[in-house]
Structures are given as structure tokens and as C-alpha cells.
Amino acid sequence: MNNIKDENFSYSLKICKNKYGIRKFKICKYCNTANNIDKQRCIKCFRKM
Fold it and tell me: By 3-state DSSP, what share of the chain in percent is helix, strand and coil, each rounded to 5?
């Protein structure tokens, strides 16, 4: 189970890199997924952040 969660997390961080390669993300308070700072909804649970 841990492996799946870690993969999701690193995948989220890759998405979060902007065009300058700087990671900008916020953590969803419902499911702890890292999300792009521009996104309004979580990519995993789709709740508003």
C-alpha cells in the first residue's frame, strides 16, 4: 500500500513543476496529495482546496 501512495506523491510533484523547474504545490487537506498551486481542485479527490 505504501508503494502506491509514494508513486502517486512523486507523480504529483512532477506535475507541480512549473516551466522554470520550480516546484510550487499545495497539499490537499483531505487526502494529503500535492497539487499544483494554480489548480482549484485536488487531482486525486477532486475537492476544492
Answer: 30, 20, 50
Q: In this structure, which amino acid lies at residue 33?
A: T
34-36/25-27 β-pairing? antiparallel
pLDDT classification of 9: cutoffs 50, 70, 90: low
Q: The whole model's pTM is what?
A: 0.41
Ranges of each domain in the chain: 2-36
* Longest Cα separation, the chain: 33
DSSP symbol at 23: B
β-strand partners of 26: 35
Give one DSSP letter per residue of 21-43, joined into a string. Answer: S-B-EEE-TTT--EEETT-SB-T
